[in-house]
Amino acid sequence: MAGLSALTMNIFLPSLPGMAQYYGVPYGVMQQSVALYLALSAALQILIGPISDRYGRRKVLIGSLVLFLLATVGTLLAPSAGVFLAFRMAQAVIAAGMVLSRAVVRDMVADAQAASMIGYVTMGMSLVPMVGPVIGGVLDDAYGWQANFALLLVLGVAVLALVWADLGETATLRRVSLRDQIRTYPALFASRRFWGYTLAAAFASGCFFAYLGGAPYVGDKIFGLTSTKVGILFALTAIGYAGGNFLAGRYSVRIGMNRMILLGTLVTSFGLGLLALLTLAGLSGPVVFFGLTIFMGLGNGICLP
Question: What angle do CA 85, 89, 95 make, to 5 degrees?
Fold first, then answer.
């Protein structure tokens, strides 16, 4: 479930320049397929948790997967960039997989164990975004950008079948309305600890999402790389993320969540700071640019679980 969410976010990134050319629009327009998707995904994540508390993880996941499949068909049939972007935004409903795969873990185990278990779960999940852009780049070069969304359609059907057949209900349903749950938000927003965790996650993952939106342009227009090569270089960040997830799973219980978060944000800041200095010094190239994002992946992998 989480893997399909991650794959939907990044499999088509090497295709962005080609998609802009296909629809006859500037690259910045097609880049919105990342920004708009993430904006709607963020909004949905606020609602998915309370809704699944009320109606159950299983029902919400099945409904989200059905809507995702319809949206994916729309991206394949879209006659214009505007229609494509609308269906691309609708694909954000698959965020339920990323949210609720973790919620299922939290339903079953205590906080410290959950951080450790989620670290291992996301280490496995990181294999998907590691190979996603590689597969996307190869498919784009061989068959065109539509092949990426055709693959998402096939995988979406497979995940829906798996959830339908195998996922039981893990939540203890709370018979309270969504409005009653939202009434607790002011107390949450008054918590300094909540904002500490929220901002650490926002800035750490924000670096990564900014990179997702801009790196295909840098690879294609600045460094003159093919879609396949850009996809392969994207895997470097995911390798760092997998390593960070392993460290989170291995040491979260022993070291503690707060110190792991601090360590993760420091590693991310170090890697991006070094990349900025080398770029300003005129020493940046494909290997330096993509290679130093390993630190960003490593820091995110430590911080986010």
Answer: 150
